[in-house]
Prior knowledge:
Chain A: It is a multi-pass membrane protein. Chain A is mainly alpha-helical. Chain A has helices at 2-32, 39-61, 65-88, 96-114, 155-177, 179-189, 191-196, 201-227, 237-250, 255-275, 277-294, and strands at 117-120, 123-126, 132-133, 142-143, 153-154, 229-230.
Amino acid sequence: xxxxxxxxxxxxxxxxxxxxxxxxxxxxxxxxxxxxxxxxxxxxxxxxxxxxxxxxxxxxxxxxxxxxxxxxxxxxxxxxxxxxxxxxxxxxxxxxxxxxxxxxxxxxxxxxxxxxxxxxxxxxxxxxxxxxxxxxxxxxxxxxxxxxxxxxxxxxxxxxxxxxxxxxxxxxxxxxxxxxxxxxxxxxxxxxxxxxxxxxxxxxxxxxxxxxxxxxxxxxxxxxxxxxxxxxxxxxxxxxxxxxxxxxxxxxxxxxxxxxxxxxxxxxxxxxxxxxxxxxxxxxxxxxxxxxxxxxxxxxxxxxxxxx
Amino acid sequence: xxxxxxxxxxxxxxxxxxxxxxxxxxxxxxxxxxxxxxxxxxxxxxxxxxxxxxxxxxxxxxxxxxxxxxxxxxxxxxxxxxxxxxxxxxxxxxxxxxxxxxxxxxxxxxxxxxxxxxxxxxxxxxxxxxxxxxxxxxxxxxxxxxxxxxxxxxxxxxxxxxxxxxxxxxxxxxxxxxxxxxxxxxxxxxxxxxxxxxxxxxxxxxxxxxxxxxxxxxxxxxxxxxxxxxxxxxxxxxxxxxxxxxxxxxxxxxxxxxxxxxxxxxxxxxxxxxxxxxxxxxxxxxxxxxxxxxxxxxxxxxxxxxxxxxxxxxxxxxxxxxxxxxxxxxxxx
Lengths: 308, 333
């Protein structure tokens, strides 16, 4: 029982990080129908920004976590905005597949650029391909649990879940209550009609490319805090792919679906990994294929048959 | 010359023979201070380019000519690679010592790998090709990673350690013959009536259906056909590298083929030949840029996509790809 609960809790923890990444995939897909492969690398970039900024933030503000996560979200948001402006906007009305290949190109570019070690305008940029220890943003300690289930709950876990829930609530508020959020939903539903109603599509798309990456940046900080290390600039690939799968599982384009999918993914992965570490890796894909065969549009997605 | 102009097939055969002869001569003659100009490393790159061409053309049949979106082609390559390596290395312990025994086994093994990959392609394609949209993309992606996971947990295939000691059956000649035969087979298929119905499915699925094309069957068939060639390429690839690892066939590998295809031009066989040929050799040509080449490579990719969205070749074909028109008899009035 204790073992079961422990795996469930671990799954919720990793699921929270997946959820933050999956939201960005689903928002961008919902609006521009593009699988933004570079999103995983923005997540990585956020984690590295945490690595660089945390010591400075600790010096300026005293505490490190809150200023670091806000700064990282601002920087990744800006990166997302620039990326859309330079790479995706020229291709918006061309074939969707060429936009996808461009997304791949951006992804490879970010990975390899961050594996560099160079001096630019006198500033030494060292992302480097090497292993890095992530600074301790908070002091990790275990929280005693009454009873003798042998549960292991740390304050990092509570922080992960807490921060992602706060950000998700903010996102739901943003999408459902603000004007730009309503415009986003309108554009996702029907782009030409939304445009005829006087919605500025460019602004809406830019917003999606700022909000999604900002959430991924926050996810990157949580990832670094949880694992305490950054393996290499290629670390975003697999969490990103799993988050994408989570978004599809919940119904791509659907925001609550992405969160649901991410938690399913995190929990099933935690359980499968406790059986066999190689199995934990593949279980996500088996679940996805199973669910898509029964519900092709994902758990919460709407199936829209094509009419002639 | 007029003779060659009227006998285009013969001219093409001669041209390929010349290309082969030039590569072979450059890899033997000691022009570079006693070493051949093309050392073993370059020859291996040329062989990889050949395998990549077959992979890309077969991917192009599904993505470019049928308008579907498969992004897990490396999974089928893995099925072929592991099946053939299983036959030649684990079961039969063949070696290159006696080519008269070795090569027939090798050929049977790579064909078996292709057939198993085709079966995997049927399992993946039959349920997902009925649906329109991005489902095929997501299912193929997942199938790719699922195949890799199955290999990782299967002890007899080497599991996460990889499978080594595979005899090196793949030589420059094997790659040449394999590439040309595969591309010719796929070209003939694409220019047949099946190929025309594929293009109809791509251009408008509803119109194709209303003219009596069984679109699902057509899509599943081309998907299986393409998986077969991916499987055979996997076999050739395994017997070139002599060591295969599940991570060789990850989703990242599939993305490489997508890049080759779309940069070359997805709606043209020539594009699917040019793309991998350039992009396999490009990182080598940029060796002078040292560590920056991995940064410049994706920039070239992005700029190609922005300024030439349809790929390098677009809709154009090399003349040797096209089926020669019969000489029209001049009818005197």
